[in-house]
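Ticket #4471: structure output looks truncated?

Reporter: J.K.
Steps to reproduce: submitted the chain below (90 residues) through the standard prediction queue, then opened the result file.
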Amino acid sequence: MSIQRKPKSASNAAAQDAFIAGAPDARPSEAQVAEVYNKGIPKGHKRQITLTIAPEMLRKVDEVAKRTGQGRAGIINMAIYRALEGDIFK
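Returned output as attached by the reporter:
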């Protein structure tokens, strides 16, 4: 049995493109880029901001980062995510 190429169909290609575009790490389309929040400095799919934090809180963040093997930014991002997705501000 010989290996043959799969026939291309327009609807199949469109479905594949839609599937790939829906991936969390997919490049944003031109329409999505226009809708991006423009505050901060672009860094890939994220935005860099300046944050002012009390020294004691920063020390605690650094302790958690060291204990868990994560970076400071990861700990801060996780805390913000949990605060916004949880019921703290509802």
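Triage note (M.O.): checked the attachment and the full token line is present. The CA atoms of residues 44 and 51 lie 19 Å apart.
Status: closed, working as intended.
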